[in-house]
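hey can u check if this looks right to u? its 272 residues, i copy pasted from the old doc so theres a chance i mangled smth
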Amino acid sequence: MPAPVPSAPPGGTHLIPDTPSTFATALAAHLPGQWHRRYAGFPPPKDEPHVADRIWDCGPAHSALLDWAPPTAFLEGPAGEQLCVIPRPRRPREFLVAPLQPEEFQPHHFSGVEEPNGIAVHGDPVRAAAHVARRVLPRYAAALDAVRRNARLQPEPPYRPGASEVTESVTLIWYADGVVGAPYASVPAAARSVLYSCYFQYSPLEAAFVLPASYRTEERAVLLHSVVRQLTAQGIGVTFRHAAPSSSLPPRGAPAALGAPSTARQSSAARR
């Protein structure tokens, strides 16, 4: 006597999982390879990054995690792949399946790699597994290969190198009258020709190189940029500073002696 055929549930279709955990378990059974649902404790450890920070999707799965904070299930694949399964907001009996970035790589390894992104699937695990296997897993595998290749070619981040050591330097000074200059004795001999070429003038009365204040702001900016570019190319450091206030000289237009004006007034009054 043949075994009885199990009857279908009401409606003529098989049951559809209604939670991410049950759906993820059923989905894993139909994906190619050895997939299984990963247990995730609740609450997660404090040092564990938020799921939205690792999700490899710039579409609805990422926004759903940020805006809705739905319950989440995780799948792990045979080569360390990880999929995130969340219920689709406002769509009952539908789920979002998106890949996660691997944790063992550095941020610069993902530079230039196209995101594999996730998809929305119906709650039927068999149909969903077919869509994930055809549309998600190939893109996910290609992205992982690209990240691994980047890690092999450039293991460390491409940090910008620091400045080379300099043996000579020039300090250009901003003066209160708008002049930019430097005392002649403080300018290395190798830098003087560059200052001359950028319209600095030597003032014998001040014993200094000066860029007159008569130049417009835009012109002075171009000349100073040229000075910095040329000197640093020669290995000469350039710094800018404001002039120190001069307190030894009397203010311009001040009388030579405080008592002189009153004495002059008294003598004129006496003559009258």
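Residues 1-13, 251-272 have pLDDT under 50 and may be disordered.
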